[in-house]
Amino acid sequence: MACQQSRYHSFSSASRLQPRPSGVTIDESFLTEDKSTQNRKLLQKRRTLPYREIFEFFIEDFKTYKPLLSSIKNAYEGMLAHQREKIRALEPLKAKLVTVNEDCNERILAMRAEEKYEISLLKKEKMNLLKLIDKKNEEKISLQSEVTKLRKNLAEEYLHYLSERDARKILIADLNELRYQREDMSLAQSPGIWGEDPVKLTLALTMTRQDLTRTQMELNTMKANFGDVVPRRDFEMQEKTNKHLQEQLDTLRASYEEVRKEHEILMQLHMSTLKERDQFFSELQEIQRTSTPRPDWTKCKDVVAGGPDRWQMLAEGKNSDQLVDVLLEEIGSGLLREKDFFPGLGYGEAIPAFLRFDGLVENKKPSKKDVVNLLKDAWKERLAEEQKETFPDFFFNFLEHRFGPSDAMAWAYTIFENIKIFHSNEVMSQFYAVLMGKRSENVYVTQKEIVAQLLKEMTNADSQNEGLLTMEQFNTVLKSTFPLKTEEQIQELMEAGGWHLSSSNADLLNYRSLFMEDEEGQSEPFVQKLWEQYMDEKDEYLRQLKQELGIELHEEVTLPKLRGGLMTIDPSLDKQTVNTYMSQAFQLPESEMPEEGDEKEEAVVEILQTALERLQVIDIRRVGPREPEPAS
């Protein structure tokens, strides 16, 4: 220590005695020059140049510290060179990002131009169809006018034929009268007729007149029956023309109906397109109005302890919500390290038993790794033998055995404050949930058993004991271990394990690496995906139960109804498991649960929301597949 002080005094005295070297004067005006008027990189290089020259002068001048100063200079030069290389390596990525952004903008513009072109084509097609409809309507009107004209001509011809018939009848009657008169006159003027028998002649005349009358009646009947009949040739010609016109009319009607339907479909499509466009436009306006700019998370790298490298490690692969949790954890951990004591919470009933203390409690300030290891040891001791005491009491007893009665309370407060802050850490968050009664410890135990069983199945499938599995073997083990999972869930687990649909079957997977943990207890994405699917399956199971009960959350549910709902959505449940679920939902000991069919069952009621929240705490999951509903 004295040697160091003497060196310091000698160095300080030597520095005071040494005159300020000429040519090493720092241009103060240059150092404070406005950055906006110069190139940034050139400015930084020129600003460090005077300091570099001064430092070299110190190296040459102070012979005693020349090796130390040279090593310092070389270290800084190496760091600056490394930073320049990193900047040079990131510049192509920046250019690539700009290129990708421009490419995406061009694609968006191309898609919009294509949509505009399709809309214009649809509009043109619509106009052509409207013109075709107008043309068909005009043709229909012309045909209707032609049919009306033909009907009018037919009526005129019919009247003309009727008048001709009446005129012919009158002429025939006049002709017959004249014929009778001529015969009478010829008989009267004929000289030889008087020589015959008048009776015979009168009889012959009478018979002749009767024949004439009969013939005239037959003629009149024939005229009356067939006077209005047109010639067959004209009838067939008119019938052929009428048939041709009728066929044309039917064709035009069918075409018109088809065009009308197509027009209605196009109008509906057009209206739906307009509605979707208006909806998207309103959603866009709402998003533009309510959206906020994404935060610049790179600002946190200078605030978080450890600098940019640690922040990059913390922020890798996380979304904005997770980054907020990380930032809150960093802030909370910083505040926690600054505290030397915690104020006691007292002895109230709402205070957990392991935190009931009045006064100041020392903050032991352990590292995050130490807290995780301590919690793992607590779990090992809890699972090693059957514990009859509650989990909070076990936790405090564990601390007393580990640190002694005098420091147990201090460690209880310290660990509680740590696990309350670090929500992103699996070990801490799960321990906190079990400790505060938000989750049953059976959930943690079951999850560990599932992971251990899966690792055992994969080890059995690895016949060579090389720690490697093919894609087919991995898929088979997942399906045999989890027979109730869907194909989509199996695919999610395979992707979390490092395999995608594009992967080759010949590739091998180191399955043991999927179950490893880092020093802070964080598991691999594969085990995290198993936990996420477990929680999603539990939520879906309770949602199906609520849907099966068919009542609102604020309504009451009886014990038989809840039991029936569970048996309906999961027929494979055994009686013991159902009683366990019922005991948790209604907060009744299993020994006091009424038997099925007992009259006391109807008296046991609970609010549905409360029952579902209690079931959410325990390990509730599907035992077998649900029976398919009968087809209607």
Task: Give an account of the 3D structure.
The chain is mainly alpha-helical and 632 residues long. Among the domains are: 2-64, no CATH class; 339-438, no CATH class. Helices cover 69% and strands 3% of the residues. The chain has 19 helices and six strands. The strands form three sheets. A two-stranded antiparallel ribbon has the order 1-2. Strands 3-4 form a two-stranded antiparallel sheet. α10 packs across α11 (405-421). The two termini are 94 Å apart.
Task: Annotate the secondary structure layout.
Elements: H1 2-17, H2 28-31, H3 40-61, H4 66-189, H5 198-226, H6 232-290, H7 307-315, H8 320-338, E1 341-343, E2 360-362, H9 368-384, H10 391-403, H11 405-421, H12 426-435, H13 441-461, E3 468-470, H14 471-481, H15 487-496, E4 508-510, H16 525-549, E5 556-558, H17 559-569, H18 575-586, E6 605-607, H19 608-617
Helix pairs in contact: 3-4, 4-6, 10-11, 11-12, 13-14, 15-16, 16-17, 16-19, 18-19
